[in-house]
């Protein structure tokens, strides 16, 4: 098998839109094969990579080139034929650049799926046409909704193994649509595919003449994501204060960070939290020079017209549109630590935007069963991969928004103070 291969970095130099998407699904639903197929069909793999995959496929006894091996990078994954860690891959087409997070399907690696989907613009859930919806399918759909991923695609895979039966596809589509109606899924697309054979991946397949929708790649290239960004609420968490130690530059003071939301321009009046002082923007600098405006996810340095005491963890926003300055927050958390459960009264370090503080768990309101959406009000803790609503009290105020309004200023992680391990990911519901 030979193929002309493009340089993967060449297309990335073009000024194109970027789509981040995460794949999810149960074990053996074909996630890694699908990603391998996308990389192969878009010609964004090196010849030596393809040769290595062909050799590995032959050594495993496969009668075909197993494209799943392009993403199953860990030796343990290749030996077991499963995905354990989140594998990030990059490819591009003439229309758009893509970053893929290939997440594990096993229940014990649900935390990895949360990690991969937390920054995604789109989630792609695979279902085996022979098995239909399973527990993990519903689990991943719920997590996608909880993480406020704007776009969801359900790929009914292995349709070739059910002879491209339209009734099988429609039954799965109807069942998933009914479940998604209980969740907050603003955009749902369902596509029948065969990742192994490439049907309905890069182009429409003749095997499904009854399917009138787009191919997967066409949908990924054209799904509208520009309006998903919050360009209304200005949020600029300060990461670093720049004071050059040069004798030629003596009066420069800039505040560096990444724009979380909103649009910033020179001359705009801004409010600095938590001090409450106001100023106007004197200029916005980047690594390539000054710019007329800054928007997410640009990394910039902001200069103000007034000398204000600003440090890491502070936030620049609008005077009449500010986040909550709160020490008490209610949040949904996904517990990621297998060595110790979350307990009421336990103390952790909380990392929120660029601000770090200590926090204590004041209460656990309920534990959520992600399969039935049942709330267990009697729960006294959260074990690995469990999700619940908690009340936290922090030592210093957080500058926070609700997660449904702003995924950046509404999200946080909890860190074990003794081991420095990340033990939970959280989404703020209310800050007061």
From TrEMBL:
InterPro entries named among the record's database cross-references: CysN_GTP-bd, CysN_II, CysN_NoDQ_III, G_TR_CS, GTP-eEF1A_C, P-loop_NTPase, SO4_adenylTrfase_lsu, T_Tr_GTP-bd_dom
Official protein name in the record: Sulfate adenylyltransferase subunit 1
Gene Ontology molecular-function annotations: ATP binding; GTP binding; GTPase activity; sulfate adenylyltransferase (ATP) activity
Family statement drawn from the similarity comment of this UniProt entry: Belongs to the TRAFAC class translation factor GTPase superfamily. Classic translation factor GTPase family. CysN/NodQ subfamily.
Keyword set, alphabetical order: ATP-binding, GTP-binding, Nucleotide-binding, Nucleotidyltransferase, Transferase
Gene: cysN
Pathway named in the protein's UniProt entry: Sulfur metabolism; hydrogen sulfide biosynthesis; sulfite from sulfate: step 1/3
Subunit annotation: Heterodimer composed of CysD, the smaller subunit, and CysN.
UniProt-listed GO biological process terms: hydrogen sulfide biosynthetic process; sulfate assimilation
Residues that bind GTP: 25-32, 102-106, 157-160
Domain of life: Bacteria
Keyword Nucleotidyltransferase belongs to the record: yes
Role of this protein: With CysD forms the ATP sulfurylase (ATPS) that catalyzes the adenylation of sulfate producing adenosine 5'-phosphosulfate (APS) and diphosphate, the first enzymatic step in sulfur assimilation pathway. APS synthesis involves the formation of a high-energy phosphoric-sulfuric acid anhydride bond driven by GTP hydrolysis by CysN coupled to ATP hydrolysis by CysD.
Keyword rRNA-binding assigned: no
Protein EC: 2.7.7.4
UniProt source species: Actinoplanes regularis
Ranges of residues in domain Tr-type G: 16-229
Enzymatic reactions: sulfate + ATP + H(+) = adenosine 5'-phosphosulfate + diphosphate
